[in-house]
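In response to reviewer comment 3 from the previous cycle, which asked for concrete evidence that the modeling workflow produces usable outputs, we include below a single protein chain processed end to end. The sequence was submitted unchanged, and the resulting structure tokens are shown without manual editing.
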Amino acid sequence: MAAKIQSPVNFLSTSELNRYAELRSDEKWIEKKMKSPSALFIPVYNNKNLFKNSLQPKHEPEINPNPVLLPYSEINKIKNESQLIYFLGEIGDKYYFAVNYNSENEEVEQSLLKLGSLDDLRRIMSLMNPVNASLLAYARALSHWHSQNKYCSLCGTKTKSAASGHKLVCDNKACSFETFPRTDPAIIVLISKGNKCLLARQKHWPRGQYSNIAGFVEPGESLELAVKREVFEETGVLVNNILYHSSQPWPFPGSLMIGFHASAENFNISPHDNELEDVRWFTRQMIIKGLSDKTLRFPFPISVSFKLIEHWFNKSGKVKLRSLIK
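The workflow returned the following structure tokens.
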């Protein structure tokens, strides 16, 4: 990478959180913080978060839905054998923990529903306070990782939680294999040439929605090579001048989106796989017209995908992309 364009803290991540990674294995310190009046617990049940507002799937969620944050005394009331507690970190004078009910239990579910509504974070996160959204995303990501790694990948023995939820250890003393939370790196890139940018859509997306080229990084591959490979595979376009923009955690279930800008060497579109329904070049005028007559739509403004398109679009200095989003 020749340089980086910018490095903001994107949605679903926060610079306010002190994770205290160096103290996660200090059981006495963790227990003291967990039982303190400053501790708040984020319930995660069946990969869903708990909210104060009524958020039924068939209805539109309220603006700024508030998560249910429970004190230690309340957690003890709904304690069960499947419950796991993970330390997340500190913001201000509050210490945040996730409580993962990692198996379905009707009694636990009913206890939680008395306190609020269970909902999928992905559906409503764009309406949330950014700090709350980042905490819930963190809690959900750790909970999902635990639910997918209940058994040792080497010997098949059950694993046990360690380092306050940030490590799993095989319970077989002859094995004792350790594993850590996994994040899968994925590149996402805005490709441009002259006054045009290259966007694509997948079949299952809402009608008219276009976004950037994206894909997972393969073993033994650098980020720059992943950009070149994914773009060529999906569009047939060759790129150079790859510049880092910013990154965004995407815990659905556990990815890190790493955003880039790149320059195209050619305009010829000739996909080498069948992953995309459509790939096309857009001018700024085409984007303005498409957003105006609602034949074109982009990902939510909270996404790094939108940020990449916005950064390129706003270079013209004439119209700001957000002013066109209704």
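The mean pLDDT is 92. We consider this sufficient to address the reviewer's concern, and the full set will be provided in the supplementary archive.
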